[in-house]
Write the structure tokens for this entry.
Amino acid sequence: MKSLNTLTASMLALACLGSGAASAQTEWLAGTTVRMGYTHVAPNSSATEATGPLLPGPPSGVSLKVDNQSTLFFSLARDIHPNVEVELALGLPPTHDVQAQLSPALPAHIQNLNGAVIAKVRQIAPTLFVNYKFGEASSAFRPFVGVGVNYTNFDKRESTAL
């Protein structure tokens, strides 16, 4: 985790350095792009109805839903060819709420928990992309396509008190 915080600080320092000194850009920064922005993380994750030895019989009527989250995004991209770049995408890790989704068939005293946040989890998901950029390097508009490899880790998991 300390290495991620160090990397985050380094990326922000590079962004400040690159934005303020374009005319004094050193050779090692040539072909390097720092991007910052705001992104929306939509995990599209849920769980089917819980079953198990303590929940015998038909489906329990209890499932989970993970909420979307928005966060600060930044990346460092390096040109390896006029039309190809390698990009490391990071961001401030978002914390997702996990909500209980309950069947209306459950008793009223349990229905009070429907939609309640029962857990929180932080998502760390660095991604390495290879992007192909169309057009000439001097073009103002350069659409691109990319393919990437992602490693997602969930940490700081905590259950909420109900």
Remarks:
- The mean pLDDT is 81.
- The chain has two helices and ten strands.
- The first strand starts at residue 32 and ends at 41.
